[in-house]
Specification:
about 575 residues, mainly alpha, two-stranded antiparallel ribbon, about 70% helix, about 0% strand
Length: about 575
């Protein structure tokens, strides 16, 4: 009978493996013999596969393969052993073994990829195999947990490409961008920045990218839109060593102001400063868009005026001084370079006296020392607040009066016309006064006749039995009935005043009864109190005036109380 040892001694390894399959000890012997035979024949990768299936100690097998120049057999063997560990459940020590194998495999792969003297195809072949290995689930899980050790190992091999790829695989974009910038691969760094979701990296690496790629960096920032906090982008926007950088900074600030509608004062002040220093025309456009209401603009007006003054942007200074109502200063400044601007500025104040004062400054500047009569007359046409007599002091004492003949005649005609208008107004006022006096006399003579059977319009009881009020419209009310109706309608102040007057009246009446007589002073005081009480109660007819004024008020003020009462 032929035994298993006989079969492998004859080289029948397949048949020996089949016979030993049911006995694990025999199977291990057969696999070990096959591995040794393959190793002796130089079939190292085949030997590696068989050794991986045996229980041969890991260290012993590795020592055999480490002496070989070709590292693929040992890599195959370690990967096989790693596969056996990851497909079986194990304790903590097995997890440490998995970590050790993966770290070693990474070291072996990187040694092959970066081996000196090898051609491109060699490196690409090993790189492809390495990439496949690094994307295996067990490897990804392990390297994510031990990222620091892996990054240090890759760094020791001075392999920035694979270091960046590893950082991407574990989403460590901060490390990726940092490495790319360190290697001066600015385009790749910007692409990585745009692909990752962490907005804080825009704030961190924006200034470095702005130095090298101004337009592309600003494009990336604008692409994020309102996701970025504009004030945190400022460190990127202060990089302005070149003309292109300055133009791109202004472009982003305009985007933030006009598209994102930011109200951040610092951003607006920064844009205003850049405009004032480099683009004065755009500054005026910006100021006009912001408007002239000091409470609605988003920049600091006093800071803006200081900047424009230092940079000698006179048009903007006039604009800002007008916003601050510094009219005299604004006109004086405008007179230095633009007469029309000075005239427009002088016409803006609402106060006529201020406008007249400003126009007189313009007249003094325009006429004094020149004695130009035509200019003086044109100023009279432009401002209706000026008169010829206001301008005459600006001319020399020797100026011929003939030059002002037409203007003086026109002024005299205007004065004559104005006098006639005042006379007509006085005549109309006199007629109105006489008409009012006549109506008052008629009212004093007016009488209202009362029938004995007349009743109160509120309680329908006989009117004459109690004190009452009769209005010109014909409505009649008892005093107490009218008071009850008017009290809820009165304001709080008038209600308190009425209560105080009634209390004073009661006190006065009590003193009069106690003394059994009353003095003239008490009589006068009583009359005054009575008159004021009547003015409050009977200021207007209840039906024709007071109730009509309350037509827009709700019938019920406190619905909660009403609901409680109804329940």
């Amino acid at each position: 009978m032929i035994t298993v040892p006989d079969l492998w001694s004859l080289g029948q390894y397949e048949l020996a493996t089949a016979h030993a399959a049911e006995v694990p000890e025999n199977l291990q012997l057969v696999l070990a013999q096959r591995a040794d035979a393959a190793f002796q024949d130089g079939a190292y990768e085949v030997a590696a596969n068989y050794y991986a299936e045996t229980e041969e100690t890991f260290e012993k097998v590795c020592l055999k393969f480490m002496v070989l120049t070709d590292k693929r057999p040992i890599i195959s063997y370690v990967k096989k052993r790693l596969s056996r560990l990851t497909t079986s459940d194990g304790d903590r020590s097995q997890g440490d073994a998995v970590k050790a194998l993966i770290i070693w495999l990474i070291d072996l792969y990187l040694s092959q990829i970066n081996m000196p003297g090898k051609d491109k195809s060699w490196r690409e072949s090993w790189q492809l195999e390495y990439d496949e290995f690094m994307h295996e689930s067990a490897v990804l899980e392990c390297t994510s947990q031990h990222r620091t050790e892996v990054q240090q190992l890759i760094g020791q091999h001075a392999d920035p490409h694979n270091l960046a790829q590893f950082a991407i695989s574990i989403s460590d974009y901060d490390q990726v961008i940092g490495q790319q910038l360190k290697a001066e691969r600015y385009g790749e760094a910007l692409q990585t920045l745009c692909k990752q979701p962490d907005l804080t990296l825009y704030y961190k690496y924006g200034p470095q990218l702005m130095e090298q790629l101004p337009k592309q960096t600003i494009d990336a920032l604008m692409a994020q839109g309102s996701k970025l906090e504009v004030d945190k982008v400022v460190p990127t926007l202060i990089v302005m060593d070149t003309l292109e950088q300055r133009e791109q900074v202004i472009r982003y600030l305009e985007f933030a102001v006009y598209k994102l509608n930011t109200t951040n004062d610092a951003i607006h002040n920064y844009l205003l400063h850049l405009y004032a220093k480099h683009e004065p025309k755009l500054l005026m456009k910006y100021l006009e868009i912001q408007g002239r209401d000091e409470s609605l603009v988003h920049y600091d007006i006093h800071y803006a005026l200081k900047v424009c003054t230092e940079l000698d942007v006179k048009v903007a200074c006039v604009f800002l001084q007008c916003m601050l109502c510094m009219w005299t200063t604004a006109v004086d400044l405008a007179l230095q370079f633009d007469m029309q601007l000075a005239k427009d500025t002088a016409s803006k104040p609402q106060d006529d006296e201020m406008r007249r004062k400003l126009w007189l400054r313009i007249a003094y500047h325009d006429i004094k020392g020149t004695n130009d009569v035509k200019k003086a007359l044109s100023l009279l046409d432009e401002c209706d607040l000026l008169r010829i007599e206001d301008l005459l002091p600006f001319f020399s004492d020797f100026e011929k009066i003939d030059n002002f003949k037409e203007a003086i005649c026109k002024a005299l005609k205007n004065y004559n016309h104005r006098i006639q208008e005042l006379q007509r107004e006085m005549s109309d006022s006199r007629e109105q006064s006489e008409l009012v006096c006549k109506e008052l006399r008629q009212l004093r003579a007016q009488r209202i006749g009362m029938e004995p059977q007349a009743v109160c319009d509120i309680c329908d009881l006989v009117l004459l039995v109690k004190p009452f009020f009769v209005f010109i419209c014909g409505h009649k009310f008892h005093s107490d009935c009218l008071e009850k109706q008017v009290m809820p309608i009165l304001s709080k102040e008038r209600s308190r005043r009425l209560a105080m007057l009634k209390q004073e009246m009661e006190t006065l009446m009590a003193q009069t009864i106690a003394l059994a007589n009353h003095t003239a002073e008490q009589q006068t005081k009583r009359t005054e109190l009575k008159t004021e009480i009547e003015e409050i109660l009977a200021a207007d007819c209840l039906y024709c005036g007071l109730l009509i004024e309350t037509i827009d008020q709700p019938f019920v003020d406190d619905w909660d109380q009403v609901n409680v009462e109804w329940e």
